[in-house]
Design brief:
Strand order of the largest sheet of chain B: 1-2-3-4-5
Low-confidence stretches of chain A: 1-5
Oligomer: heterodimer
Strand content of chain A: 5-15%
Mean pLDDT of chain B: 92
Largest interface: A-B, 30 and 25 residues
CATH class of chain B: Alpha Beta
Mean pLDDT of chain A: 84
Shape of chain A: rod-shaped
Helix content of chain B: 40-55%
Number of domains of chain A: 4
CATH class of the largest domain in chain A: Alpha Beta
CATH architecture of chain B: 2-Layer Sandwich
Strand content of chain B: 25-35%
Order of helices and strands of chain B: EEHEHEHEH
CATH topology of the largest domain in chain A: Phosphatase 2c, domain 1
Number of domains of chain B: 1
Distance between the termini of chain A: 134 Å
CATH superfamily of chain B: STAS domain
CATH topology of chain B: Transcription Regulator spoIIAA
Distance between the termini of chain B: 28 Å
CATH architecture of the largest domain in chain A: 4-Layer Sandwich
Largest sheet of chain A: 5 strands, antiparallel
Number of helices of chain A: 25
Radius of gyration of chain B: 12 Å
CATH superfamily of the largest domain in chain A: PPM-type phosphatase domain
Amino acid sequence: MQYSLATIKPADLPAPPQAAIQIMRACSDPAINNQELARIAMTDPVLTAELLRVVNSAFFGMAREVSHIGQAINILGHKALRNIVLCISVRDAIDPKSLPGFDVTGFWEDTLRRATAGRLLAAVVGVDEEECFTACLLQDFGLLVMFYLSHETKAEWAQFIKLDPDKRYVLEQETFGKTHDQVSLMLANQWALPQHISDAIGFHHRYCELDDSNQLALELCRIMYCADWLSSLFSVDDKASVLSVVKKKLAVFYELSDQTSVNLLNQIPAQVEEAANALGLHLQEQTDFDHVVREANVRLAEENISYQELTWQLEKAIKERDELAAALAKELELAAEIQRSLLPAEQEARFPVFGVNLPAQELSGDFFDYFKHEDGSIYFNLGDVSGKGVTASLLMAKTSSLFHCLGKREHDLGKLMAQINAEICETSVRGMFVAMVAGKYTPATGRVQIVNAGNPPVLFLQEDRKIKKIEAGAAPLGIVPDSEFPVVEFSLGKGHLLMFSDGVTEGYIAQGEEMGISGLLNILKKHINETPRQQLAAILEPFERSTSGQRDDITVMVLEHCGQGVERLLSYEFSSKPAELQSMRGQVRQVLSKHQCNKACVDRLILAVNEAAMNVIQHAYNFDSNGSIRIEILRKEDELIFKLTDFACPIDRSCVKSRDLNELRPGGLGVHFINEIMDEVAFQEDCKSAGNILLMRKKLDESCFKPNRGRK
Amino acid sequence: MQYNTREEAGFKVLELSGEVDLHYSPQARKQILGLLKEGSDLLVDLSAVEYIDSSGVASLVEGYQLSKNEKLKFGLIGISDAAMQVLQLARLDKVFPIYNTIADAE
């Protein structure tokens, strides 16, 4: 095989002494005999003397001292002789003085370490040790030649020695434009080395390119390649990773155990020193393998520290993430707490409104609220903001606050809703809207007003157990700015209202089956004879039973009638003088007007009370102005009771009766008026200390609340 | 209650105003009966009446009955809502001659 390099010619290469070339050639000649070989060697006395010194060194371990070249040849054989001559020739081929400033000692140390490693490995795997030693000694000689030929690069050596063989090979290409194996091959050819050694030297970095039939060369190549890695372990910076590579390569190529590899490595430093002595090279004290391992461990420890640092940083990052998540969770919890505070506080047991809000997430888009106005009426609302979570909860908070705030000033429910709608339309974002039902309940009259803006129907569970639906009469808030909100008004009687968000009807009660309005009605029908609180529990029960049932925020609110006892609205005592009647009528008017009764109704009730008082003045007291009369107005649910007490002598009640209206005469109309206006009129039987007690009862029905009528 | 009497189109017009209750109805009665006893045709203007009770109504009934006996004209004009409500309750809205204007009463 011939190689031509652009800038290096064989003539540029250092040549061994003539005698050495002759010996090496003769050794390769199977026909040559020992005497002839000894004769050639003795033509160069310096070489001969050096040969004898090397052969007698501990490295070659001769059993006895050899004093003559012929004897050496007899003991060593041709091949060993050739190798020793080659070693000496290589050592002497370049005069250190021709490479001023170059670390020649370092280079030889590196070379000897490689050769020794090759020799030790060859012994372990059963290959010719001396041939391996020689080949390894020569394999990197090309590098020294390249430094020799380009003086300006000599300082680069310090970099080479620190690198593993692969990296070193790359750096050679970058530094010299060629690699040591190519130059070494030229030398091998010029020095007439046996072909398989030349091939191994030329291909030890590219042994895959060698023909499979070239077994001797392939065998040498593997030894040389492994020796490269073994020796580099002692000089590289990154000892930990090279040690790991060495162990792997020896395991792959020769199936050596880690322990065998370590044993081999252990022997290298001492062997290097012996080889140096044998070749007459002076090296620094060799670093033992333990030291190499310690350095590798330090490196590993450093890496472990980095790993620990990485772990620590990861832990720190996780901790930070957890802290942020905890902070966010805390924020959400605070938000949820604030939101819960927007829901009405649990009122006293007899308060007629109560409800439940079950958020689907931390924060709810649903809400309900109620508050008692100073006039005694109760405002309530239940809403469902489109969407869920934080955004919905913010709009929920706004809407709830608007209702709470504006509701205290605007008493017309329709106008109140229009104002809230306008506010939400003005500032609403992302097309969010609020389905809402709002109402006003006047316990004094039992009247309820409802506005349903896009919410599911309000269910009116009437006294007769019938369920009436009050469907939405307007679009949800936040969609049409100038919407009108029709008010539905009726008497609650002894019934109650049930309001709910669509989270109830759209929740699952069974596998994928929504409760629906029909499901809700079925539950209510099943529990129709139970209290409103029991009915509320029955509605929520399916969702509490199944955790997967709740798909949206669930809110239910109940308004029940005030089943309170008798409430005294007025107690007014006055003298039995006709002139006092006007003040009495003023007192009664004031009380009745608060009840939202229309003027006609109030006028009639006042007329009846006045007639009764007149009768007391006229007939009980006989116009004795020293008498006293007490008017009391009591309310029992939707009934007003007018109680008129005097302290005159008991009258003959049989005389108190209506007269025939067809009989046209001035008197006797009073009792007719009273009977006509009141539902029930009776004297109380047991008057105790009083003279007479007249009880007049009037149930407030629809006619009392209709808008004021004109004259009939 | 306040009252005022004037003459118009051959009628005596008694204007009652305010609250015609037991305290004031004797005055109303006295005026009504007095004017009729003078032989005047009488119209009672109830347009400013805010309240009237059975005693006030009784005064009107008495006046109406006297006018019949005396063959005098008697009627009510300008009845307020409050007064009309009471008259209706007493079924007297169909009994009393009621006119919208004085001209109608002629």
